[in-house]
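Reopening this one. Same input as before:
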Amino acid sequence: MDNIRRQFIKGGTALVAATSLYLLHDAGAQEELPQTKKRYALLHDETKCIGCNACAEACRLTNQVPQEVARLRIERTGPYGEFPDQYYRFTRVSCQHCEEAPCVNVCPTGAANIDRSTGIVSVNSWKCVGCQYCIAACPYHIRFINPVTHAADKCDFCKETNLREGKQPACVMACPTGALMFGDLEDPHSKIVAALNSQPVYRAKEDLGTHPKLFRIRAKAGEVSL
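Same output, byte for byte:
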């Protein structure tokens, strides 16, 4: 009996010691890697967009998005004006990365969340139960159920692919006209902050109070002509 008891105490002591070491190690790791809060945003310059869909194809390839769905698409409207002075407008349709995200507020499992270190609205597919509450709540109608993962899906600024490798989002890298700009709103020296401060921009459905972080430079008549 004593022998069993000693073994039990010995095992318990070892477990406590191991747990303590783990906690110390974890605390140390957090001290070594301080969290730097960022607030990523995207600027779509509609005056430069030619509707080539290179951004959408790069997104699909990089993030392995099935053909029947899309995280990003370019919506073409027009032509406007009278022949021969007609033109089209190209609008990016993707997640707005709202700071007050309705999709996050309605998620019952926490699968939809805002990454507090980047401001990116994300989806944890392992937590998603496919209830589609987020799809119903999104005022921009950009979420969908991924037919492979059976979880809600959408643009995450390539958080799990290009950003993890220190690259720009795939759509930004693929754009042949430089119509897309990605950066940190918390960095006063970033190009995107300079761009936002130097020209008029707008955001979709601002009256809803969702504070989207997809900014747009409005297309002007004649910018992209037939």
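So the earlier flakiness isn't reproducible anymore. For the record, The longest helix spans residues 2-32.
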